[in-house]
Specification:
mainly alpha; elongated; 4 helices
């Protein structure tokens, strides 16, 4: 049995979001491309509880913002599909 972690698409997106906050928070982070997601998880686990909670809140906010933005400003592909369905 493998110890390799499997991440859902949502989990991967949230890990990409959280990793973008490392630099502004002066959290050193480097990882090989194929080890990116497990490395982000390990980096977050190593942080103190207060920082983890702050990152979770920021990640939730970004995720919600992106969801709202997608609903308010649909992509051209979505607009075209809606126009086609309206006919």
């Amino acid at each position: 049995m493998s110890n390799e972690l499997v991440f859902s698409e949502r989990a991967k997106k949230r890990l990409r979001i959280v990793s973008k906050f490392f630099k502004p928070l002066k959290i050193e982070f480097k990882a090989a491309r194929d080890e990116f997601y497990p490395a982000v998880v390990e980096k977050v686990k190593a942080l103190d509880e207060e920082t983890r909670e702050a990152l979770r809140g920021l990640t939730d906010w970004v995720e919600e913002y992106e969801r709202e933005e997608a609903e308010c400003y649909p992509t051209e592909k979505k607009k075209n599909a809606e126009a086609k369905n309206a006919k």
